Each structure stands twice: as structure tokens, then as C-alpha cells.
Amino acid sequence: MADGTGLESAFGFIAISLFLGALGLAAFVFFSLRNKPSRSSDQSKSKETKDSLDQKTQNGRKSQTKGSKKKASSVVKSHKTQFAILKGHTDQVLDLDFSTNGKHLASCSQDRTVRLWSVKDFKEKEHKYIRANVDFDHATKVNFSPDSSEDLRQPQQPLRFRAFITALANGNTIRVFKTTKKKDGTGTAVTGEFDFPVKHKTEIISIAIASNGKYIMSCSKDTTIVIWNLKGEVLAIIDTLQVNNSFCSLSPCGRFVASAGFTPDVKLWEVEFDKGDNFRKISRAMELKGHTAGIYHFTFSSDSTRMATVSKDGTWRVWDIDVEYSKQEDPHLLLTGIYDASCNVYENMLIAMSPDAYVTAISMGRSLALFSTENGNLEEFLEEVHGDNITAIAWHPSSRYLATAGGNDRQIRVWHNAVGIKVEIDDLEGRLVRAKSDTIRGRLEQQILEARASLDKLNVQ
Prior knowledge:
Blueprint: H1 2-66, H2 68-72, E1 82-87, E2 93-98, E3 104-109, E4 113-118, E5 129-133, E6 139-144, E7 163-168, E8 174-181, E9 188-195, E10 204-209, E11 216-220, E12 224-228, E13 234-239, E14 245-250, E15 256-261, E16 266-273, E17 279-288, E18 295-300, E19 306-311, E20 315-320, E21 332-338, E22 351-353, E23 359-364, E24 367-372, E25 378-382, E26 390-395, E27 401-406, E28 411-416, H3 418-434, H4 438-458
Antiparallel strand pairs: 1-28, 2-3, 3-4, 4-5, 6-7, 7-8, 8-9, 10-11, 11-12, 12-13, 14-15, 15-16, 16-17, 18-19, 19-20, 20-21, 22-23, 23-24, 24-25, 26-27, 27-28
GO biological process, one term: endoplasmic reticulum unfolded protein response
Protein name: Transducin beta-like protein 2 isoform X1
Pfam family, one: WD40
């Protein structure tokens, strides 16, 4: 009995040991299996996060490639010829115009305002402006009245205030504004005076007041140009017969209205008045022919003797229009310049000849090319000067500054015309070699010294 009891006890101890061992092994396996999926899940989540980040990065790169214009809008390069940045508009700036006396710059924006900037403040850190609200609409174009023009309400009275006109986006007509001194003498007030009747069926793309103060021009995207008197009455309507209009302008002398469109030509008409300043008629004057594709934009020289054009064919050209067109003499081609044809990917290009005719500026997307009008050479390329495509360029009457506006960056940038000074020096030195008298040589040498001193001040050589 004692032996059997001891054996049973031994087997019981073994059984308990095996049971406890099995229980411990089961617990180990249980906790091991429980922890393993947890680590696997964490690794899986980590991989998903990484894949997601990689995918976002790839999508970002794709987005940057496909929509590079948007991505690049935050990148604006600095250039040593930059003079000022005018800030204040809260939406894209659409057009610019300097007053003929050079004291003010007008800008219009989708923010429903027109702002008049003081040129003398450009050198300051803060840039003052006078704000004019465009009620219930916004202006797409702006143009100052010339100093010699008459009161837009009373054409027989001398101009007692500065006026300007705008093209209205929604109203699709012209609104006249005037500036007057505030009654308390604290500043200048700007008010919208009156709107012209609606005559255009499509968007207005150009407006201008003639320098002689006798008429106003407006041009729309179809083939229509309207000539108005200062009261807003229609004097004549021109059908350009160009499929559509891309740009229209008045010559600085006020004699010609010119248009470009689908065809590779620029057409000019003469606006004629009698000795009593009564409107007579509009007659065909001349055409600029030679481009092989549609013309984006064109510009007149300040003396109205030359024009420059930029075309989809990859060239820009300078023409002599000081010809006897009444005797069927055609304009003469003076110069053909070439620009990078890849720029045709942009929707539009703008061209503007400096008032002294030394430099021709051409906008190419977000960049600005400055060419010598003397020989057609590219003198300077200002790359990525705005966060979006350039919408407007305007020369100061002195040729010292060039102003540019860029779409969605809401800013106006003003540039020193260092290129113009360099081209002027080259021109003066060439004339110095050809000078035949000591008097002329002395005057040219003095002008060269003054030009070099101006260039030294800019510190951009």
C-alpha cells in the first residue's frame, strides 16, 4: 500500500508539472501570437503612411509639372535694375498708364479699383496712391487724358482737372473719371462722372483718348472699333475685317488709329477733322505687311514716325511709317528681330518702344526681354519678374522707367532703364566719330559723360 501510494504521488507530481508547463507554454504562445499581429499592424500602418507620403510627393511633382504656372507663381527672381514694387491691389492688375506729364501712374485691377500712384514716391519705401472705386464693376483698361485735352463734360471749356477713362468689364463700355481737389484741401478726390452708351457686342480690349483731345477710341474682340466724341456720342464705327481684333491703339500724334488681329498685318486709318475741329471722316492710310502669322501687339514711337510689332511667327519688327501714304507709298521695314519661338506657348506677348526709341521691351510670359531698337540685339533678359504672366507694360515719358504688372501676384514693378542708357552711349559714341565740328564733338562728349554718370548711379554695369 505504501509503495502504491508513493507511485501515485510521483505520477501526480509529474502530471501537475506537465500541466503547469503546458499552461506556461500556452500562455507564452498566446502572448507571442497576440504581440506579433500588433507589431505587424504597426509596420503595415507605417508602410501605408510612407506610401501615402510618397504618393503625395509624386502627385505634388506631377502637379508642379502639369500646373507649373501655379506652382511657379510664388517664385519671383530679384534683379538689380528693379526700382520699386507698388503694393495695394488685392486682385490681379490688368492695365497701366503713365500720365503725359509723368507725375502719375494709373493702374486698374479686378479688385474694383483704379489707383493713381505718385511717381515721385517711387524711391520711397511707402508708395502713396489715390484710390478710385469702380462701383458695381471692375476696369480692364485705363487711359489718362492728355494735358491738352478738353473737359470731357464741357468740350468747349479748357481742362480744369485731370481725367481718365476706363473700360468696364461687365458694363462693356467706357466710364469717365475726374480728379478734383477736396473741398477741405486735404487731398484729391476721384469720382466716376458718366458712362458711354453700350455699343460693343464683345469684350472691349483697347481704349485711348487722342492726344489732340478731339476723340476717344474703343476696340472690341470682334472686328469693331468705335470712334467717339468727348460727350460719348459715336462719330464713326470701323470694321477691321480681320476675323477678330487682338489689339488697337492711337498714334501719339492723334492722327491714326491702328489695329491688329488674326491676319499678319497692322491696318492704319486716318481720323480727319476740318479746320473748325469738326469730325469729317475716317480714311484708310496704310498697312504694315511682312509678318507670316498673326500679330500679338504693336507700339508707336513717341513722334509717331515708327512702329514696332511682335508676331506669332517668332519675329518682331520696326517700321518707318513716316511715308506719303496718300501717294500709295508703303511703310518701310527698318529692322527684323528674332525672339525665342518657344515663347509662343504663352497666350499673348506685349511690345512697347521707349519714348526715346532706344529700347523695345517685349513681355514673354513672366519674363521681360529688352532689345536695342538700333540693331535688334537682345540687351537684357529679366527672367521671372512676376508670379504670373505679365498683363501690362508702360514706359514713363522720360524713358527712365518701365512699369510692369503681373496677373495674380497683384503687384506693379518699376524698372530702371539701364539698357536705354547703354544704347544711348553707343549711339552718342557713333555720332562722335562722325562729328565734323569741334562744337558738335564737345556737346556729344558732354552727353556721353552725363549718360555714363547716370549709369554709374544705377550701379548695374
